[in-house]
Amino acid sequence: MKGLKKYSNKTKAAFILLIVMVIILLNNFNTLQDSKERNENINAIFNDRLVVERYIFHYANELHFIKAKAIQINLDDSQKSQNISNALNKIKSIDALYLKTVLTANEEQFFKSFLSSCATINKQTQNKNWSQIGNSSNQALETLEKLSNLQIKEAKLKVDNSNALHNGLTSLGELEIALLVVLSGITTYLLMAKKIKVKIPEAPSLN
Predict the structure, then answer these.
(1) CA distances from residue 23 to 167, 178, 189 in whole angstroms, order as listed
(2) Which among 111, 129, 150, 207 counts the fewest CB atoms within 10 Å?
């Protein structure tokens, strides 16, 4: 404290201003990083969760179609094979899009299981094992249900993380406002300190 006495009030005010500005700059840098992460979370929710849920919906439609064609009485083997092969080709076209998304470890495991079920359906179609296709399709649908649940779980984690970042940004903003208020008060006091003169009333004359 003694060392500060040799500096003028303006120097002290400038020094305090510098410290507060450095703190605010660091907070702003942290805010930019948090904003970037929030943006990544939002993109991930859309690209890797909502879009994937749409792929799962199309998968399920094709599998139900395959189940129906496999047991359809008025179709011969050739017609059944053609219809099911077309549906499997549609599934393969979605596979390429699905693999472009970010997969968690569990999601990758379930997706491999789904692909395995589709490969089994394809083999059963070639062998004309129509009665077995329904069971394989049901297994694939169960795997899709697990994948869908994972989308909800992962999306919720992203939302929770974004909410935590938002609360952090709000707190930092409030801190910056508080620092600026304190800075204004201290700076004003230091700059006005020399201008304020305290007059001590003189003692009454005895004469």
Answers:
(1) 19, 12, 21
(2) 207
Work out the number of other CB atoms within 10 angstroms of the CB of residue 201: 5
Task: Report the C-alpha dihedral over residues 15, 16, 17, 20, rounded to 10 degrees.
Answer: 130
Tell me what pLDDT residue 82 has. 95
pLDDT of residue 17: 72
Range from 45-54, 71-80, 101-110 carrying the lowest mean pLDDT? 45-54
The pairs formed by 62-65 with CB atoms below 8 angstroms and a separation of 24 or more are 62/87, 62/88, 62/90, 62/91, 63/87, 63/91, 63/137, 63/140, 63/141, 63/144, 64/137, 64/141
Of 86, 91, 82, 81, nearest in space to 117 by CA: 91
* The pair of three-digit structure tokens given for residue 148, joined into one six-digit string: 């869908």
pTM higher than the cut 0.70: no
Reduced to 3 states (helix: H, G, I; strand: E, B; else coil), residue 196 is coil
Average pLDDT of 98-120? Answer: 90
Helix ranges restricted to H, 45-129: 51-70, 77-98, 105-126
Taking the C-alpha atoms of residue 21 and residue 155, their distance in angstroms, rounded to an integer, is 37
Listed residue (19, 119, 127, 22) closest to 70, CA to CA: 127
